[in-house]
Amino acid sequence: MTSILNADLHCHSVVSDGTLTPEALAARAKANGVVLWALTDHDEIGGQQRAATAAKALGLHYLTGVEISVTFIGQTVHIVGLGFDPENPALQLGLSQTRGGRGQRARDMSAGLAKAGIHGAYEGALKFAGNHDLISRTHFARFLVESCVCKDTNEVFRKYLTEGKPGFVEHRWASLKDAVTWITQAGGVAVIAHPARYKFTANQEFALFTEFKGHGGQGVEVVTGSHTPAEYLTYADTAREFGLVASRGSDFHSPDESHTELGTLPHLPGNVTPVWELLAQRIQYAAVTSLGADAAAGH
Ligand code: AMP
Ligand code: MN
Ligand code: MN
Ligand code: MN
User: Fold this and answer.
1) Portion of the chain with pLDDT greater than 70, in percent
2) Mean pLDDT along residues 263-268
3) Please, where are the H alpha helices in the chain?
């Protein structure tokens, strides 16, 4: 399969911190010319069945997806899983444990914000959460914008929700090894999400890629809404150096907040192997469209 494919393999629905339903996302992906799609909610695969059903009805090819929160040498790293079996019990248990700490964390965040004079943030954020098991900083950000504390979610993160700010709470997520293992043992491919976003030194980043690969990780996001065009090239080189396949995804959350629209990023650079080449057997092909006919014919 070609690297010139409108695949969008990273986005969020109301099942985590997006504002659209899986069905609305599928329709938006289709309208924007996406051919291969994956919904990748944070730490949660409760939207997978709806996404796959909606995709198929629209003639979109589908890969199962998730974005797992991991703590690696003191920083939060996101690992995207693609093409896994959503019924896998170890994956389901691991994700449920990863989600588990979010309720207490949200109460602690709310207590921190109260000290800064912002009251009722827990209840306020909860109103924005489509899934109460998956309350995230994004929901707090929406509440603070609604309450006119800040003008947009970016400002909320900058002033209140990042390290050293009143609503920030240190949290221990899954280990890198566990997240990669849950995904791969369920038949999927693990992908390092938006690597340019992390504040690692060169040595720490090298350690992340080396350990990720050692645990069985196989991919890295190269073209994502979080990267600049220069970073596409940097991480295409990194993919080649580490023998990883490359992924492409907008990380779309909301029509009002996201600067990158579903399915509108540039194609992967030509010098990388696309992740969908590894996943041909795991794609849920829709009945009609060229990729479907191609794949069904075994090409
Ligand atoms: P959490 O998993 O609760 O820590 O929330 C992380 C989510 O917050 C990310 O997936 C993004 O959707 C969102 N986020 C993180 N940093 C920012 C930022 N600077 N501006 C807007 N949204 C952000
Ligand atoms: Mn998010
Ligand atoms: Mn992420
Ligand atoms: Mn994401």
Assistant:
1) 96
2) 97
3) 22-31, 48-58, 89-100, 102-115, 121-128, 137-146, 153-156, 176-185, 202-214, 229-242, 275-278, 290-296
Q: What share of the chain is helix, strand, coil (3-state, %, to 5)?
A: 45, 15, 40
| Mean pLDDT for the stretch of residues 72-87 | 98
Question: What's the token pair of residue 25?
Answer: 């996302």
Most distant CA pair in the chain: distance in Å?
Answer: 63
Q: Which atom of ligand 1 is nearest to the CA of 69?
A: 2
Query: Do the Cβ atoms of 125 and 106 come closer than 8 Å?
Result: yes
Query: What angle separates helix 229-242 from helix 202-214, to the nearest 10 degrees?
Result: 50
User: Taking residues 63-70, what's their average pLDDT?
Assistant: 98
Tokens 């409760």 locate to 46
What domains are defined for the chain?
A: 7-98+176-296 (3.20.20.140), 102-161 (1.10.150.650)
Residue 153 beta carbon below 6 angstroms from any ligand 1 atom: yes
Q: Phi/psi at 40 (nearest 5 deg)?
A: -125, 65
Residue nearest to atom 11 of ligand 1 (CA): 138
Residue 138 pLDDT greater than 70, yes or no? yes
The phi, psi pair for 39, rounded to 5°, reads -90, 125
Look at ligand 1, atom 12, and give the residue with the nearest C-alpha.
Answer: 138
Tell me which DSSP letter residue 183 carries: H
- C-alpha dist (Å) from residue 246 to 164, 255, 261, 276: 34, 26, 20, 9
Ligand 1 pocket test, candidate residues 138, 144, 170, most atoms within 8 A of CB: 138
Tokens describing residue 155: 């400002």
| Spatial contact of 281 and 298, defined as CB atoms under 8 Å apart | no
User: What's the DSSP call for residue 298?
Assistant: T
pTM assigned to the model: 0.96
